[in-house]
Amino acid sequence: MAAPESHAGQDRTVRRALLDAALEVFAERGYTDAGLTEIAARSGVPAGTLFQHYGGKRGLYLALWEEFREEQERRTAATLTTERDRGVVDPIALFVAGARAYLGGAWDNRRLARLIAEDDGPAGFDALRRQWDRAWVRRNARLLEVDERHRAGRVRVSVLTTVIGGAARELGDCEDETEALEIVDEVCGILVHLSTPPG
């Protein structure tokens, strides 16, 4: 009988193979046209095991999104911790550093970022994405020390967050890392300009 750690390791390997294959197929065909048979075949995992782990195509898609979201949050939080440890306290500088980290993650995981930005996802995904976007705006408002009770502040943070999201989508179409870095630098300059409160 296999040790529990060995079984858990095999489980992780199977899940990783399924997610990697799902990302390939979703990226090539889109969510709607992706087939579970093809995902199972590419992963080398039986279709029944796919259902056992993820319940189907929707579960695979949501697991990929969750993985991307968590990695982006980890990356951004680590950057903010590093900046604060270096003595950075300016809210705009911290916000831009976090945005740079987020955009770097969007470039590093561009196939997944591009997939998530498309309108071709499972039923109900748009509502989940909007919910996460609202939470992202709230986190950015706290980081920028904006009073969310004032509409102008809320709108400013919403616009800034939208700029970052739009730039992340653009990174998915970049030809190479040089072009991606130029976009990140340009967007961070725009964010500095837009982050400065009027007056």
UniProtKB/TrEMBL annotation:
Residue ranges: DNA binding: 35-54
Keyword DNA-binding: yes
Domain of life: Bacteria
PANTHER family: HTH-TYPE TRANSCRIPTIONAL REGULATOR BETI, HTH-TYPE TRANSCRIPTIONAL REGULATOR RUTR
Name of the protein this chain belongs to: TetR/AcrR family transcriptional regulator
Pfam families: TetR_N
Keyword Transcription: yes
HTH tetR-type domain location: 12-72
Keywords linked to the UniProt accession: DNA-binding, Transcription, Transcription regulation
Species assigned in the record: Streptomyces anandii
